[in-house]
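Thread: NDP complex, take 2
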Amino acid sequence: MARILPVPAFDGVVFGATGDLTMRKLLPSLYLRYRDRQFGDESRIIAAARSEMTEDQYRARAEEALRSFVGAGELEQDTVTRFLARLTYLRVDAVGEAGWSDLASLLAERPDVVRSFYLATSPELYGSICTRLRDCGAISPQSRVVLEKPIGHDLDSARAINDAVGEVFEERQIYRIDHYLGKETVQNLLALRFANPIFERLWNADIIDHVQITVAETVGVEGRGGYYDKSGALRDMLQNHMLQLLCLLAMEPPVTLDADAVRDEKLKVLRALQTIRPHEVATHTVRGQYAAGVAGGKPVEGYLTDLNTGERSTTETFVALKAQVNSWRWAGVPFYLRTGKRLPRKVSEIVVQFRKPPFSLFPDEVTGSEPNRLLIRLQPEEGMRLEIMTKEPGPGGLHLRPTPLDINFAETFGRGFPDAYERLLMDVVRGNATLFMRRDEVEAAWSWVSPLLDAWAEKPEMPKPYAAGSWGPTAAIALIERDGRTWYE
Ligand SMILES: NC(=O)C1=CN([C@@H]2O[C@H](COP(=O)(O)OP(=O)(O)OC[C@H]3O[C@@H](n4cnc5c(N)ncnc54)[C@H](OP(=O)(O)O)[C@@H]3O)[C@@H](O)[C@H]2O)C=CC1
Ligand SMILES: O=C1O[C@H](COP(=O)(O)O)[C@@H](O)[C@H](O)[C@H]1O
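Output below.
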């Protein structure tokens, strides 16, 4: 059993409390933290949304959500009942007057406890919600605000959101969620690199040939077409989650694990990313859109049919690109990134491909000698595998074979991993911002992707089609094979 450190008493206000994110992720995560006694009956959850609803109606919806999204083995009726009793529902209009004075009165009952305002609404409402929170006197010195992604759809809109929230809250009070940072295996990248000198000494351009980051999903756009079609794979996944992974892989060792020490190092990586210039966009990036195909053994429709708008869309559901970090450590080491919907498997994986030995005692054609490779499996089947060359046993000669040194985290630790939101929600209450993004990081990430968005907007071509259930358009294979390398699958 992991050690669970209780958090201080808090009032957690969730705006967007009737929405998909709250029902699928936030309430189940809060329930599990309550069940494990990380917080208790001295804390309250105040659910706020636009709909007219009684407290009992809201609690009934919340219970339904728990039954749908918490594993059956984790639901304990008595605990569910006590958890639901922690929920209060308030009708609050983010852009009107309704509900704000009720919210302020409720919070005023406990002026000294931690207050977290979780904004699980559309980002256009963030500025308005923050201003109204200030105007109704709901913000105490112990308050913090959590911003869901996306923080904008480009650099200007991200700045506008950050400015609006920054008018009300100090940067130290703002927690920008990137749920990938809450995944156990993503946090483990820090442990892998900075608690194991055997790797850190090899973690540079002298020894590493290239790095691949793949985040593949089997789902299509599901019910989120309205949002997704305005976003696309670059904005939805690469600008945030994948660049954060790249930062953790490429950053220099921070001096401490303090939030700003870690974020300073990630920021340096984002700023060192080589700009992809307009004439390089065609060779360094690939956009794809899924067409009809097969997923999970069943025929599935293409993106345009899933969208069901009857209109053409140039939104990409797949993106691959080649990035370069201009630093002493990484000069000449490409980072290949790809992500997409309706790919053959749900898998998030990092491949660190080491260089060939500078001189080989074992001629390749005789021995099959291959350079070492480290695979870091973020999800599912979380673990790591280092492929090392070993001699095949037997008297027939000196034949080498890549052999895995394998760690499967579930087997090693004897338990599964909590959802990222469980960790992140408790970090907010604890006041630990290490796994959240700072304003300058978000804006640096937008700055880097901006030239790509501009180039694509200037020439709005259809993305390359790929059959659902394939690994994306063939151009994505060409992107890496032009460099004499190949995607690991
Ligand atoms: N769903 C997901 O998987 C993910 C979502 N996100 C982000 O989380 C946020 C929420 O997403 P999601 O839950 O899917 O969105 P939904 O559309 O499902 O929910 C929106 C919520 O906002 C509330 N709302 C809308 N207008 C107002 C208003 N004027 N005043 C008060 N409340 C209002 C709605 O209340 P009501 O229903 O009562 O009108 C509802 O609770 C978005 O920023 C999204 O990008 C991020 C990652 C994943
Ligand atoms: O942020 C998002 O992430 C999910 C994928 O998250 P995962 O934890 O299941 O890997 C993605 O489906 C969604 O489009 C995106 O908005």
